[in-house]
Amino acid sequence: MDELREKIIAAIEVHKTLSPGLLESIYEEALCVELELREAAGLKRGLLVNFGVPRRVDGIRRISL
What we know:
46% of the residues lie in helices and 15% in strands. Helix 1 (3-18) crosses helix 2. The longest helix is centred in the first third of the chain and has 16 residues, at 3-18. It is of the alpha+beta class. Strands 1-2 form a two-stranded antiparallel sheet. It has one domain (3-59). The two termini are 21 Å apart. It is globular.
């Protein structure tokens, strides 16, 4: 599975587990934990995920460091 797809799956898992409406810092911490569990940390590309949108696809942007 490629790195980007793995990150998207991790973000979806966090969103599905926590649901919308929480503070951004809570989602950030949960996503960091989820990515560490999947060994995806330390990569030069990532996703910026906005959990406050009705459709997940509208809240995902790819970023490069």
